């Protein structure tokens, strides 16, 4: 059995009689079993030693602890790693030894105190933090609940509503807020942290400060009747926000058990439920997403070359439309000076207005001060020519999807920008080789595909051609991280990774309704599956103009994979363009609330007759499961093509692209992970059956056929699978 060997704690006793126990396990001082056992041993030693009067627990290098070592969960789930009996750490170590000690201990928190890290700190008799420290219990983002007593101690320190919010939203608080909540006793500068904690521990010993065993605190817990109302409300909210997830409800149940039956009973239930949740599919999927997200910035042949990102001091953006203004907002929010170029005064004014509005909305929501607003907007300069492009380090073109216009722009950019300048396009579908056809410096051309609204959506698709230099990719990865996006590096083709997966999603929906499935039923089934909205509601949101323009690109480039439906063009003829015209597949009131429109039926009938298909009674009676599979298996099929073509380097990158670019539910692990949970054979056989009944659109690709024949997973690396085959 693997031991989870990693990390340790150290013990150092000062002349003042305070023992400092330091957690050491880079990079985030996570709590491996070795760290936890070493913590126990050092505690026991400190309690035994006569020269130790009190204890301070802290973390090395400015980080208290990022929580239990997540890399060990896989081993526990797979049975390769032995784990202590339930409650051993929460009860025997943290409650009986740390909290129950005859010597007081204080946690000195800088940097991170997350998950198990905060749980260790809460077992101490007091906590001191720095202002920038982050304290939280984010376990629910991994599909589990806190397992080291956090469900019992956090409510007793900050009250039920706040503790439930912090756990259910996986939302940490910073030092000052932690102080006002009562989670920490004082906030001090980092250089005073340990000395203050030492003194605090001695003060507790000498009764100058209270000696608090948090588990038995009751003053912050609401009376039972009120508590029950809080739990009821929290359950209703959790069910509304994530109807497919059970672990938020389990978390509330466990907190309630402690309030109703006492904290020891609460600890017992926490331990049992933690074990169960750790083995759930939701936890496995969310863990996969955690690591996949961190893996996207590791690109073989690019990030392993030892290249350091160059400093980008100034960025120019071409086009101040929805995308350009969103990108400009994202950049100035991260302190990049930006030049926004438009073709005339009117458009320029409108573009700058959009950026201002994006920032103003933050001010309105209390997320930005007026002072910060002024400072941020001052980083934006509007221009009408290329004069000021001579010293920019990166240009992002964000004009309309018109090939010849983009070709002209890139040829111009080469003339006006310095030779080191990165030439990026925000195209969502057009092949970059086409865009750069009239340029010489093709190594500088790269795709920077943002998703709308660009200052909000978390994904950045970085598109490389065969000629894009690794340096340019490293630079863009760095910028992506600085503007808080998750970058995914993909190869060049029409639609790249995200839009190639989106295309069959919409197409399958058209096929279904033309054959008789109710369109609102399709949207309902897909939202129940966990997508933020169904394909028809999405088409309304994106707008029919964009849908037709991108659709044309696909039809031209992948004719054999296309289901040719006329629904959208027919509806557009009727002056429907989606949500902007308040009429699309839905009707929209002035508050943008969507309601079904019975008139849409007639457009579907017309499209049906143009496609030459008849209503099939089977389609009118499809179960929700069938709808989900008929919509998503073509997406899986396309993801397989994208993977097999090398457009995505790793299947996990497609998982992230689907979660962050399409809204695929993270708790299903992303498109490829989800597909593997169903099995390549099953998906292949269903697609094969539908393709014989309903046409080429469903035809499984060679990659899928091959993997299904061998019973291989879809996510296995292409080379590895090849060698297996
Ligand atoms: C029983 C208990 O209740 C159960 C638990 O404690 S479960 C764990 C609860 N803790 C968490 O959920 C925190 C998870 N981590 C994070 O949110 C973020 O990593 C962070 C805020 C700590 C740091 O973020 P950031 O500075 O952006 O760095 P990030 O790239 O995410 O992480 C740095 C490295 O630390 C690793 N890491 C982060 N947290 C870790 C953890 N808890 N265990 C093991 N490794 C961890 C990351 O995988 C990454 O490794 P890599 O360099 O090999 O890719």
UniProtKB/TrEMBL annotation:
GO terms for biological process: fatty acid beta-oxidation. Residues 314-492 form the 3-hydroxyacyl-CoA dehydrogenase NAD binding domain. Pathway: Lipid metabolism; fatty acid beta-oxidation. CDD domains: crotonase-like (cd06558). It holds the Pfam family ECH_1. SUPFAM superfamilies: 6-phosphogluconate dehydrogenase C-terminal domain-like, ClpP/crotonase, NAD(P)-binding Rossmann-fold domains. It catalyses: a (3S)-3-hydroxyacyl-CoA = a (2E)-enoyl-CoA + H2O; a 4-saturated-(3S)-3-hydroxyacyl-CoA = a (3E)-enoyl-CoA + H2O; a (3E)-enoyl-CoA = a 4-saturated (2E)-enoyl-CoA; a (3Z)-enoyl-CoA = a 4-saturated (2E)-enoyl-CoA. This is Uncharacterized protein. It comes from Citrus clementina. The lineage of its organism: Eukaryota, Viridiplantae, Streptophyta, Embryophyta, Tracheophyta.
């Amino acid at each position: 059995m693997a031991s989870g060997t990693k990390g340790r704690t150290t013990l150092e006793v000062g002349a003042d009689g305070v023992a400092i126990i330091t957690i050491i396990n880079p990079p985030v001082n996570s709590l491996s079993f070795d760290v936890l056992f070493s913590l126990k041993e050092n505690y026991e030693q400190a309690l035994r030693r006569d020269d130790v009067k009190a204890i301070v627990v802290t973390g090395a290098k400015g980080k208290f602890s990022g929580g239990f070592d997540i890399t060990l969960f896989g081993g526990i789930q797979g049975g390769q790693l032995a784990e202590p009996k339930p409650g051993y750490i929460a009860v025997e170590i943290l409650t009986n030894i740390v909290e129950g000690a005859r010597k007081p201990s204080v946690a000195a928190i800088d940097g991170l105190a997350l998950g198990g890290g905060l749980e260790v700190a809460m077992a101490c008799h007091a906590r001191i933090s720095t202002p920038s420290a982050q304290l939280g219990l984010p376990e629910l983002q991994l599909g589990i609940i806190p397992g080291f007593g956090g469900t019992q101690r956090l409510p007793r320190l900050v009250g039920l509503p706040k503790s439930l919010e912090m756990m259910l939203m996986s939302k940490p608080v910073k030092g000052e807020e932690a102080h006002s909540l009562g989670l920490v006793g004082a906030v001090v500068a980092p250089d005073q942290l340990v000395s203050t904690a030492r003194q605090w521990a001695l003060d507790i010993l000498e009764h100058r400060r209270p000696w608090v065993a948090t588990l038995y605190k009751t003053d912050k817990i609401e009376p039972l009747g009120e508590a029950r109302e809080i739990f009821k409300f929290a359950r209703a909210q959790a069910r509304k926000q994530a109807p497919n997830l059970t672990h938020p409800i389990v978390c509330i149940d466990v907190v309630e058990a402690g309030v109703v039956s006492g904290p020891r009973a609460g600890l017992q239930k926490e331990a049992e439920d933690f074990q169960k949740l750790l083995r759930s599919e939701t936890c496995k999927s969310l863990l996969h997403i955690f690591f996949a997200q961190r893996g996207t910035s590791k690109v073989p042949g690019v990030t392993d070359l030892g290249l350091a990102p160059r400093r980008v001091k100034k960025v120019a953006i071409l086009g101040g439309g929805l995308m350009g203004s969103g990108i400009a907002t994202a950049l100035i929010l991260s302190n990049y000076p930006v030049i926004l170029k438009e073709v005339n005064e009117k458009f320029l004014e409108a573009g700058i207005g959009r950026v201002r509005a994006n920032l103003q909305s933050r001010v309105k929501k209390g997320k930005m001060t007026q002072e910060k607003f002024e400072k941020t907007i001052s980083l934006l300069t509007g221009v009408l020519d290329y004069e000021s492009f001579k010293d920019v380090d990166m240009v992002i073109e964000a004009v309309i999807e018109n090939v010849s216009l983009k070709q002209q722009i890139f040829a111009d950019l080469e003339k006006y920008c310095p030779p080191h300048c990165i030439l990026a396009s925000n195209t969502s579908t057009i092949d970059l080789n086409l865009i750069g056809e009239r340029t010489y410096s093709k190594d500088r051309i790269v795709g920077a595909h943002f998703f709308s609204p660009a200052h909000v959506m978390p994904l950045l698709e970085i598109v490389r051609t065969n000629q894009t230099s690794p340096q340019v990719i490293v630079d863009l990865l760095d910028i992506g991280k600085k503007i808080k996006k998750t970058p995914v590096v993909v190869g060049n083709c029409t639609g790249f990774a995200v839009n190639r997966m989106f295309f069959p999603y919409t197409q399958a929906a058209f096929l279904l309704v033309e054959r008789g499935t109710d369109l609102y039923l399709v949207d309902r089934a897909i939202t129940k599956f966990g997508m933020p909205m169904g394909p028809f509601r999405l088409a309304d949101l994106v707008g029919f103009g964009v849908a037709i323009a991108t659709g044309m690109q696909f039809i031209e480039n992948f004719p054999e994979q296309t289901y040719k439906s006329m629904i959208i063009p027919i509806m557009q003829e009727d002056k429907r363009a989606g949500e902007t015209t308040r009429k699309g597949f839905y009707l929209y009131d002035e508050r943008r609330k969507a309601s079904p429109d019975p008139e849409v039926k007639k457009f579907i009938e017309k499209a049906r007759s143009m496609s030459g298909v008849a209503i099939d009674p089977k389609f009118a009676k499809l179960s929700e499961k069938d709808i989900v599979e008929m919509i998503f298996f073509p997406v899986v099929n396309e993801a397989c093509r994208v993977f097999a073509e090398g457009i995505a380097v790793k299947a996990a990158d497609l998982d992230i692209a689907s979660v962050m670019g399409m809204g695929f539910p993270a708790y299903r692990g992303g498109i490829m992970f989800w597909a593997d949970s169903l099995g390549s054979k099953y998906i292949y056989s269903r697609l094969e059956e539908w393709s014989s009944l309903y046409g080429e659109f469903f035809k499984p690709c060679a990659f899928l056929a091959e993997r299904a024949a061998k019973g291989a997973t879809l996510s296995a690396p292409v080379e590895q699978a090849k060698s297996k085959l």
